[in-house]
Amino acid sequence: MSPPHSQGTAIHDLASRLRRLPASCGPVRLVGVDGHAGSGKTTFAGELARALDDAPVLHLDDIASHDELFAWTGRLLTRVIEPFHRGESAEYAPYDWQARHFGPPRTLPPAPVVLIEGVGAGRRALRPHLACLLWMELPSEESWTRGRQRDGEEQREFWGEWVSAERRHFAEDPSRPFADALVRQCVKGYEVLPGPVNTAGLDHALTLGDGPSAMC
Q1: Which of the 8 DSSP states describes residue 181?
Q2: pTM for this structure?
């Protein structure tokens, strides 16, 4: 059985709106899910993908690496964005964070909606290819605390390096000011609020919630 909040109306209403957006990358409506590390992007993207009839999800953790925490733009454009613009399937080699090398190729089809999830999904070089940018609305320190608790003591050194790298990235290339909608996780479900900017298909008055906002 799916988690309770997957049955809420906010995600399904958002999915319906995303389906109606114009294609942004060849035949694909490319949707970015950005936010600080630990903010809940992966969980939310999974829920949204299910509401979109199991839309493909590209995790940027598969594109990045220890040596290129944020210097992966060229690889993403070449392996994913350019094939999508041609209406072709993308093919990329996901990175193995334990073995520290890229694995066997994986295919990503040019589905009607494809989600790109990860820190930097709304970066400057990707925004022209996005139909919509969603930002997980959770402060950085709270997100990082959650991430550290999730990953445990063995990742403590990595998190120290990551936080510095993420600070530099968002200082140079912020995503939140360009988000079409802000997503807040509530005690039950999600609340989707208007972002600083909106695409034509997402109403400025957009406010979708599965429960009282006071619970968020």
Answers
A1: E
A2: 0.88
Cα 132 from chain centroid? 11
Asked whether 34 and 136 are in contact (CB, 8 A), the reply is: yes
User: Token pair for residue 23?
Assistant: 């294609």
Question: Tokens for 210?
Answer: 């599965």
Query: Is residue 1 predicted with pLDDT exceeding 70?
Result: no
| pLDDT one-digit tens code per residue, 95-111 | 998 899 999 999 999 99
* Closest of 124, 116, 117 to residue 169, by C-alpha: 124
* Paired sense of beta strands 181-185 and 132-136, if any: parallel
State the DSSP code for 80. I
Residues 6+ apart with CB under 8 A from 23: 29, 112, 131
182 beta partners: 135, 193
CA–centroid distance for 194 within its chain: 17
What is the total residue count of the chain?
216
20 phi-psi bin (left φ>0, alpha ψ -120 to 50, beta other)? alpha
